[in-house]
Amino acid sequence: MENETSVSNTPVASTPAANRLHIALFGRRNSGKSSLINALTGQDTALVSDTPGTTTDPVQKAMELHGIGPCLFIDTPGFDDEGPLGALRVERTLKATEKTDIALLLCRPDMKEELPWIALLEEKNIPVVLILNKADLLDDPEAEAVHIERLSGKRPLIVSARYGQGVEYVRKAILEKLPSDFGEQTILGDLVNEGDLVLLVMPQDMQAPKGRLILPQVQTLRELLDRRCPVMSCTTDQLSATLQALRRAPKLIITDSQVFKTVYELKPKESLLTSFSVLFAAYKGDIHYYTASASAIARLTPASRVLIAEACTHAPLSEDIGKVKLPRMLRQRVGEELRIDFVAGADFPKELTPYDLVIQCGACMFNRKHVLSRIEQAKEQGVAMTNYGIAMAYLSGILDKISITSP
Description:
Layout: E1 6-7, E2 21-26, H1 33-41, E3 59-65, E4 69-75, H2 83-96, E5 102-106, H3 114-123, E6 128-132, H4 141-152, E7 157-158, H5 167-177, E8 198-201, E9 213-214, H6 215-226, E10 231-234, H7 239-245, E11 252-255, H8 260-266, E12 272-275, H9 276-284, H10 287-293, E13 305-310, H11 321-334, E14 339-344, E15 357-360, H12 368-380, E16 385-387, H13 388-395
Parallel strand pairs: 2-4, 2-5, 5-6, 6-7, 8-10, 8-11, 11-12, 13-14, 13-15, 15-16
Antiparallel strand pairs: 1-9, 3-4
């Protein structure tokens, strides 16, 4: 399959973390980040202590906030941490910016540590809300807020997480900073309309755990039902029989990328064809850069180097698409000497220039901001980057024949 995390057959009411608004809290050690998260969520989500450096790794908490919707709060280690371990914690805090939709930055009046981080977040186009926390311990919080505004050009919210003062203003600020297009992306885009018949071709091989569907399939199916589209599904070996049983040809066929060529050869001429991974290329990333970058495959030589990036951290299986099938297709085209590196989860090299091509999975476990951060990194370094579905369509010789949704 597309190697995305599977969904249990036990009903789950919560929104997947990747579809939630990611709100990260940044600040120095003991600035009250954990206390503010607890105040915002109304729960003891994060460990609170007077000892600096209590938060040693980013802590995530999924919540539903009134007026905002499903959110994921990220409590980061203090960006003023020291020593060898402190440097690692700061690095993890920096990495958290890659998936941050909105940043809450807790300030100290001198702003010595905060100003560089404000600049960094703004450089990454991340909306920032400045917060002057622990107002109950300040002699003149208004004067301190004026001083911070003079240094940063931004007026901080005055908050006392301990007593709940100003917490409601933080919620309102988050709502005001909400990206204008957040939540507007759809998986199917303009490919279907109400009443269109859609056929899902889903191989149930060893990578599809018994009793489950993988997350892209579940989310795509749910959107199709919401759009009031009749849906049929089958495995690859039943495709011909399923098409014969239908009274009309499907408007759209969505398949697993690994059987692109097989499905293309069997599909009715009038049916559009795409894959779950291709749909997620537009839903999560930059479909135009992905498709343009696919041509880099033609320029690969046995001396080239390719990076395959998998969002999941599952144990690889014998027919794993990222570690087995895609490398096999690339080497059949380029040569066995082609060097292919593999990273999983949050691991992603800072320096991409050693690579001739980066291939990202469908990234159903990442939020859109996280994927776009990686693409922007590749663009800045002049490195081609595509995704599993686009790459496999290119390698199958049908990239110009598949349907791609508008972002």
